Amino acid sequence: MVHASPVPLESRANRPAVPSTHDFQTQHLNVQKDKTLFWSGVPWKVVTQHAKDNELHTLGESWKDEHYPNNFEMKHEHDVHKFVKHASEALVRSASGKLHVMLPHDALDSGEPSSAWANHEWLHLKRPGVGVHRVDVNAKDGKW
Q1: Is residue 106 part of a domain?
Q2: How far apart (Å, rounded) are the C-alpha atoms in residues 49 and 128?
Q3: In what order do the strands lie in the sheet with 130-137?
Q4: Are strands 37-39 and 130-137 parallel, antiparallel or unpaired?
Q5: Is 104 helix (H, G, I), strand (E, B) or coil?
Q6: Count of alpha carbons within 13 angstroms of residue 140, beta-carbon side
Q7: Is position 12 within any domain?
Q8: Residue 10: inside a domain, yes or no?
Q9: What pLDDT score was predicted for residue 24?
C-alpha cells in the first residue's frame, strides 16, 4: 500500500535542510561554561530578567551569529519542530559546569510533558561534569 506524503516531494526538495544537532554544536552555538539557563513553564519576562541579573544565556542568546535564527526560513511546522529539537539537544550537550534551570515551584524536574525541556533537554542533562541548579519560580508573582 502506498501512502500519500504530507508534504509534496517538490516542496521538500526546495527546503533548506534543518541543521543536525552536531551542526548546531559545531557551527551555530557559542555556549559558555556555567552560563546556560534552561527554562520551562515560566513567563518569558521572568526568564529574561533572571538571565540578565545573573549573566546567564538562554538558547536565543547562545548563537554565534545573533541573526542566525532569523536567517533560517522555516515554512513547514515539521521544520520548526526539528529545528527546536536539534538546537535544544545541541545546547544541553554543549553546556558544561553549573547549568541553571527555571521551573514553576510545583513542577517536576522534567517539566511539562510536551515542552522542549522535557523532550529534548532534560533527557540529555544527566551526565558527568554537569551540575544542575534549579530555580523555583512562584507562578502567582513570578518571583524566584
Answers
A1: yes
A2: 29
A3: 37-39, 97-104, 130-137
A4: unpaired
A5: strand
A6: 1
A7: no
A8: no
A9: 94
Q: Is residue 132 part of a domain?
A: yes
The x, y and z cell numbers of residue 132, run together, are: 544542575
Q: Please tell me the predicted confidence (pLDDT) of residue 6.
A: 52
DSSP assignment of 94-120, as one string? H--EEEEEEEETTS-TT--TTSHIIII
Which stretches of the chain are DSSP H helices?
9-13, 21-23, 44-54, 68-71, 77-94, 116, 122-125
How many domains does the chain fold into? 1
Give dist(CA 110, CA 131) in Å, integer. 15
Number of residues that this document lists for the chain: 144
Which cell is 96 given?
558544561
Residue 119, pLDDT score: 82
Q: Tens digit of pLDDT for each residue in 115-128?
A: 888 888 887 887 88
Domain region containing 82: 20-137
Give the closest residue to 121 by CA, choosing from 55, 59, 60, 47. 59
